[in-house]
Amino acid sequence: MSAEPGIEPAASGRPNGAVQRRGLMLVLSSPSGAGKTTLSRLLLERDSHLSMSVSVTTRPKRPGEVEGRDYHFITPERYRALVAGDGLLEHARVFDHYYGTPRAAVEGALQDGRDVLFDIDWQGTQQLAARARDDLVAVFILPPSAAELERRLHTRAQDSADVIARRMARAADEMSHWAEYDYVIVNHAVEASLASLEAILRAERLRRERQIGLFEFVAGLQAGA
Ligand code: 5GP
After folding, report:
1. With contact defined as beta carbons under 8 Å apart, do 79 and 40 qualify?
2. Which CATH number fits domain 25-219: 3.40.50.300, 3.90.79.10, 3.40.630.30, 3.10.180.10?
């Protein structure tokens, strides 16, 4: 993606040195199996201004998952200490486990004009909206059909039949929150959904209120500077 006025992060500095941008929080939520993990990975690969918020969780590590990349795997005691110390930007119980977003990494990134991608559920999204609505861009990913959702859940070999059945039940609950999101993408095809996500990100980066220093920049233009 080529550089364009107004979409450079604050830290990189633009040629005119004036218009910089505060980072945004791009949240992707969906029922399990709608393709969100694949979309997140591809978006991160293609967009160097975006980094993933790595959550903490008390659930056990699945085969193939890497500490510090997929999650920070922590004990319930550590989790309780983080909550008590206000170290999490949002936190929620999902299934039988606890999840949360470490605050410091996100706040630092936003201040530096870097965008942060979140894979969190509707509970976490509501908390981010309550705390920082102006920084939030919330996208809900829907599967193309119930049959496809079930098929995708069954091809996920990592989970037991019991877990799959409970995920199907929870999918309905998660999906009931779709209308709380700014954007909704029906994931018929990965490439098209990815293009939609990139379009959302591109437009949201250009929002007037995210561009720091515009008043001064325009004043300079008007003064013939
Ligand atoms: P999984 O255990 O399959 O990785 O994730 C289960 C659910 O927890 C997913 O819907 C995921 O979006 C959500 N989740 C993961 N991390 C967080 C977090 O930090 N906060 C919240 N609220 N939800 C999370």
Report:
1. no
2. 3.40.50.300
135 lines ligand 1 (CB under 6 A): no
Each residue of 89-133: pLDDT tens digit? 999 999 889 999 999 999 999 988 999 999 999 999 999 999 999
* Local confidence band at 208 (pLDDT 50, 70, 90 cut-offs): very high
6 CA to centre of ligand 1 in angstroms: 32
Residue owning the nearest CA to atom 3 of ligand 1: 32
The closest alpha carbon to 99, from 113, 112, 118, belongs to: 118
The reported pLDDT for the residue numbered 157 is 60
Other beta carbons less than 10 A from residue 111's beta carbon: 12
Mean pLDDT of the chain: 89
The per-residue b/e assignment along 113-131, b for 16 or more CB within 10 angstroms, e otherwise, is bbbbbbbbbbbbbebbbee
Spacing, Cα 57 to ligand 1 middle (Å): 8
Sequence spans of domains, the chain = 25-219
Cα–chain-centroid distance for residue 52? Answer: 7
CA neighbor of 56 nearest in space, from 96, 90, 5: 90
For 61-71, the pLDDT digits (tens) are 999 999 999 99
